[in-house]
Write a structure and sequence with these properties.
Winged_HTH_dom; 7 helices; about 160 residues; mainly alpha
Length: about 160
């Protein structure tokens, strides 16, 4: 099964699904068939039949969650504080033009230099998102912009224009 954002289930969601399987095991123990279990628990018949087969073969223990699936990230949990601090310093601290900002390729390169582990832009984005970062674009302002004149226009001219 594929999940949006490639994230899979959280621990809370896995626990909830495990609880549903345990409820199914209780119903199986009462001699209720998989089609009725599927209807009662609002799951697919395919899942109910699969749970029934596992329950018959190994009991309730066979319906326990197997935990996280997939390969573990090469980004170690103890490493996660360092990139956050480095990103706060800005790209200029690492030799890039401050105006261009951070890109995924730059962040991946900074991590690779420090930890000797290369990540693709997609992997880098996943790591940053897990760390709480969000995509942000700088506000592009004209170099000739006069804030005082903009404020004056907004205060005096805009109310007249807005009436029309």
């Amino acid at each position: 099964m594929r999940y949006p954002d490639g994230g899979g289930l959280t621990a809370k969601q896995r626990a909830r699904r495990e609880q549903v399987r345990f409820e199914a095991a209780e119903l199986f123990a009462q001699d209720i068939g998989p089609p009725q279990v599927a209807r009662l628990l609002r799951v697919s018949r395919k899942s109910a039949y699969a749970w029934h087969a596992r329950w018959r073969a190994g009991g309730v223990e066979a319906l326990c969650s197997k935990g996280l699936c997939g390969r573990r990230s090469r980004m170690r949990p103890q490493w996660r504080d360092w990139p956050a601090a480095e990103l706060d310093k800005g790209p200029a601290a690492h030799g890039w033009d401050e105006e261009r900002g951070w890109t995924l390729a730059r962040v991946a390169l900074v991590i690779a230099r420090r930890f000797h582990v290369r990540f693709s832009p997609a992997q880098t984005w996943r790591i940053l998102r897990q760390m709480g970062f969000t995509p942000q674009l700088p506000a592009h302002r004209s170099a000739e912009r006069d804030e005082h004149r903009v404020a004056t226009w907004t205060r005096t001219t805009w109310p007249e224009v807005g009436k029309e």
